[in-house]
Amino acid sequence: MIYQIIAYIKFLVRSTNQHGVHSPFVFNFVTRCLYDAKNYDAYGSIYAYRKALLASNEEFEVTDFGSGSRVFKSQKRLVKKIVKHSGTSLKRSKLFYRLISYFHPETVLELGTSLGIVAHAMACANTQTKIISIEGCPNVASIAKKQLKKFNIENADVQVGTFKDRIPKLNQNTFDLVFFDGHHDKQATIDYFNLLLPKANNESVFVFDDIYWSKGMTDAWEHIKIHENVTVSIDCFHLGFVFFRKEQTKEHFKIRL
C-alpha cells in the first residue's frame, strides 16, 4: 500500500491531460474515449448487472491461481462482498464499454473473468464483438456464466482454466483487444504478454490492470512498454495501454483519468 501511495504521488507530478498530448492518435483516444462523459443508454444495463451481484447472498469457495487477495483472508466468499470490496467499479465498467465502442474490435480476450462485470460491459458495447474470457476458478466462472445468461449476453464465451493452459489452445489468429486482469505477478504478466504478442495486429490494444499493484507489476509494465513491437504506451496509473501501430513514433504518455 505504501508503494502505491508513493507511486501515485509520482504519477500525479509527471502525468498530464489531453493538453499535453501532441500525437493525433493519442489525443483522439484520450478526448473521445477516456474522457468521454456522455451518458450512454447501455450504462443502465451495466448498473443493473452490478446491482444484481450486490444483492446476491451466494457464497462460494475460490480457487486462486494468481497473487491472492489483499482484502479477503478466507477462500469462502460472498458474491456481494467481492463486488463491494474488490470488484470492478462502475467507472471502470463504463470505460471498457467505451473502449469497445471506440475501437470496434472484432475479437477480444480477457484474462480474468471474475464475476463477468467487464465482459458484460464490453459485450453491451457491440453485440458483434466476439469476447473470450478466461477464468481459473470454476466456481467463479459458473457464477459469471449464469449472470451473463440472465442478461442475455450471447457474445461472451467464458472458458475455465489457467491462463497458461488456455492461451496456447486459443484458435484465434489475432485479437484486437486483450485485457490482462489476473495473476498480478511480474514474470507471469511478462510471460502472458509474450504468449499473446504473436496474436497482436497493427490495430490491437493490450490493456493491463493494476500496473502499480506492486513494484513487480510496475517492473513488468516498464519491460512491456519498451518492447520493440510496442510503439505507444499510455499509463493511466490503474490501467496501462499499449499499441502496436507501426506508423506511430515510439512515445510513452502518462494520462490522468
UniProtKB/TrEMBL annotation:
<keyword id="KW-0489">Methyltransferase</keyword>
<keyword id="KW-0808">Transferase</keyword>
<dbReference type="GO" id="GO:0032259">
    <property type="term" value="P:methylation"/>
</dbReference>
<protein>
    <submittedName>
        <fullName>Methyltransferase</fullName>
    </submittedName>
</protein>
<dbReference type="InterPro" id="IPR029063">
    <property type="entry name" value="SAM-dependent_MTases_sf"/>
</dbReference>
<dbReference type="Pfam" id="PF13578">
    <property type="entry name" value="Methyltransf_24"/>
</dbReference>
<dbReference type="GO" id="GO:0008171">
    <property type="term" value="F:O-methyltransferase activity"/>
</dbReference>
